[in-house]
Amino acid sequence: MQGLRIQIRGIVQGVGFRPWIYRLAREEGIAGRVRNDTAGVTIDAFGAEPSIEAFLGRVRSDAPPSAAICDIETAPIAVEALDEFSIVESDAAGAPTVAIPPDLATCPACVAEIFDPRDRRYGYPFTNCTNCGPRFTIARDVPYDRSRTTMAVFEMCPRCRREYESPDDRRFHAQPNACPACGPSLVAMTPEGRPLDVADPVAEAAWYVARGLIVALKGIGGFHLACDATSESTVARLRARKRRQQKPFAVMVRDVSAAFEVAHLTTEELALLVSAARPIVLVRRRETAPLADAVAPRNPLVGLLLPYSPLHHLLLDAAKRPLVMTSGNLSEEPLAYRNAEALERLGGIADLFLAHDREIETPCDDSVGRVIAGRPVVLRRARGYVPRPLKTACHFRQPVLACGALLKNTFCLGTGDLLHPGPHIGDLENLDTYRAYEEAIDRLQRFLQIEPEIIAHDLHPHYLSTSYALARPETMKVAVQHHHAHVVSCMTEHGLTGPVLGLAYDGTGYGLDGTAWGGELLLANLRSFHRLATFRPVRLPGGDTAIRQPWRIALALLDDAFAGTPPRPVLPLFHAVSATDVTAVTTLLRSTFNVPSAHGVGRFFDAIGALVLERPLSSYEGQIALEWNLAADPVETTSYPFTLNHDAEPWHIDLRPMVRAIVADVGGGWSPATISARFHNTLIEATATLVRAAARRHSGLPVVLSGGCFQNARLTEGLLGALAPEFAVYRHEAVPPGDGGVAVGQAVIASAIVDGIQPDTTN
Ligand code: ZN
Ligand code: ZN
Ligand code: FE
After folding, report:
1. Which pTM does this prediction carry?
2. What's the rounded Cα separation, in Å, for the pair 537 and 548?
3. Of residues 473, 488, 578, 481, the one with CA closest to residue 524
4. Ligand 2 centre and the CA of 333: distance in Å?
5. Three-state DSSP class for 477?
6. How far is the CA of 316 from the centre of ligand 2 (A)?
7. Cα 708 to middle of ligand 3, angstroms
8. How far is the CA of 374 from the centre of ligand 3 (A)?
9. Highest mean predicted confidence (pLDDT) among 72-76, 84-88, 270-274, 328-332
10. Residues 583-607: pLDDT tens digits?
11. Phi/psi zone of residue 116: left (φ > 0), alpha (ψ -120 to 50 degrees), beta?
């Protein structure tokens, strides 16, 4: 006989872990006990040595899919003469337990029940079990149990309670456990909030959808607006009412076979689509896809997602068509998640409300992912991932709050050796979003019982996140350069402490010299960086106006490349712009007022995209850049000339030769697809040349890719192909490459600076 104490850390509470351990112990003939504690789960196991070994092996290898084990520690203990294995109640007086789990997509067993007419949960939209259901979004406090969730108001009926209390049951300690007799109920309402007297609100909603109407649907993390994705006029109406002109909508399909009808899917894309987090996955749309063009205008990709709540399964089954499933808000506003608020804000958009009386405590957007070079990359980290922590190689001696950047803001709390990125908040540009941001920070702090001592923020003096940081009562504030934070966010994912050659390519970020950086090669460690190289800057006539009107940047690039005499007349783009505007911008270019310089690689996508696609205006952030990226011919291999200027540090990549060659190609009648491919190839070649040159001075360093430009699969895959034979190249997976990932880097850098966890090695 042998006794072993096994301590497991990670997401192991609220995911059916203890019942699973219980069954495993019985199967392997192990006696002892399992309990939740402040660190995770502790098991005392007693049995013959081979049984203990087999048991431990299975604990390591077959954990339930929704659990995430960070580490397992074992220590021998004295043998106790026990006959049985039992689940011991948590010590109520103990310190609060570890993190609340993320929301989990409905499991196959629960889906089977809601479609089984003989089951007592047939058609019940709030069915869940220990393997699935809402978690983070219904939690009000820690430790995570029913009395501290929005399910507290529903008293379990005797049958539900029996399931909840029996360790053999799939619903043992499933905190949101419910059935039609005792749980939440669904209601269909008019936009005025009047409940409709209908037997089946789901069937009613399906009827509305079939008639081209718009349904506001209360989901897991907030309201969605749903409508028929196959109808041009319906989708156009949704766009008009939501005031969202062209930005793609996500589409929910009933199941995997419906997903294959809509898109080409690789094995990796399919795995991401069906994962318990159920993100929106960007995939290549089929030519034959039964989708309205208005879903994603001029975009060969489609954001696809599968049902992740019983309500989605029931609605998709009844509607018998793919549905647009977009967040319930007006453009730029935060997500609506309370019934009254939804009626007020979405009353002018939706024709019917499908709501219920289970409150959402914490709003959480859908996450977005994409497979790049065969690996899943989280582009927007929210529902299904948050508040799952990320383990870091460094240790936060003092808790840190990192406030993030401006667009696609996310904050992050760091404590011990864990990082807790908050949910995606959105663009911090209006008061409502700012309020949602403050609330989300307060809430996660409370859930994690963290009082931050260090506040990290962006170097930009005018970001709302910076103002927020500066107004916090804590005295220790650390300003972090944006691209340094990008690079370190990626280093952190891979346990790198530097030095590294970090490429940070994005639209914009405040540089040390006050200009907009965004095409940077940094020699970086966790504390500091040295700017080795950048791109020759582009001028932005009119500042932010130029970003919404990329023809202005195109004109500035041409002006630079042709030394003040851009060949405008031969370029069709400028036929689409009024002569007065062209003259005004030309005048602006000769001045120094309101013509900031920008180094962002994203600006070349905006400008060249506008030029070649003849698209003077952008209707949402990054639109033209995205279209230009997706236009590229996949097989074209040639590229354009560029120069790498070594005269002074930082070195400059000069793309003027490329701009001149592109003008020649436009004149020569080459297709946008070919020109876009050559443009991408040029960026890849220029970057690889730069990295090789830098590596001659700083040899043997890993290369790190970060920044929003690496959401671009063609750029990332091309660069991996060019660099991988010579360098260890690291890229994002769990942390978004874009500004949603910046807070992770900020947290680590601030802590490294304050705690001095690493000597400065870059000088
Ligand atoms: Zn389930
Ligand atoms: Zn019940
Ligand atoms: Fe950025």
Report:
1. 0.90
2. 18
3. 488
4. 37
5. strand
6. 25
7. 6
8. 24
9. 270-274
10. 999 999 999 889 999 999 999 999 9
11. beta
